[in-house]
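Re-run with default settings, no changes from the original entry. Doing this only to confirm the output is reproducible before filing.
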Amino acid sequence: MKVLAFEDSVDIEALLISGGIDLSGFEFKQYWDSQNYLGRIAELSPDILMLDHYMPPTRGLEVLKGLLASEVQRPETIVAMSSASMANNAMLKVGADIGVVKFELPTLTIWKTQS
């Protein structure tokens, strides 16, 4: 299972591990900015894509819109993981599958059902 996170300030892999998630069945990659996001998504072809909203240079909402309008394969699960629930709601309206405050990521069932 491949996971790709776009998050500029929090180490998402460390957050998940400290939350008790066993990532041994996952290939995890994090980018600390959203430069060349379509190329990065296409290269890894993740099963799970996690997007922070407030991320330079392209916000998560715009990354999501750009991805969905492109020919890049859509990941099976797209997680909006901003610390602002309003930003997550905006991404849910555009096509994200899950919206969660990033510090609650370890509570998601995707780590148990897709590992």
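The first helix runs from residue 12 to 18. The beta strands are 2-6, 27-31, 48-51, 77-80, 98-99.
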